Amino acid sequence: MKIFQRYNPLLVAKYVKTLFRGRLYIKDIGAFEFDMGRILMPKVRDKRHLNAMSEINRQVMRLQAEMA
């Protein structure tokens, strides 16, 4: 499990895209699981988790589009 001390969507997206499957924790936000290079729906579905999930997934999609 990777622990990010600060929330930086681009760094988290690069980590998710590279490892493809696993778990991570972002300080002050919470824990996330990812599979197939995308953050999965969090178990805790509050606004902070959902916003972070969608922003990270957008960054992953942007990175994948740049690679293609």
UniProtKB/TrEMBL annotation:
Give the Gene3D superfamilies listed for this entry.
Answer: so0334 like domain
A Pfam family assignment? DUF1107
Report the domain of life of the source organism.
Answer: Bacteria
Output this protein's name: Uncharacterized protein DUF1107
Query: Which organism encodes this protein?
Result: Enterobacillus tribolii
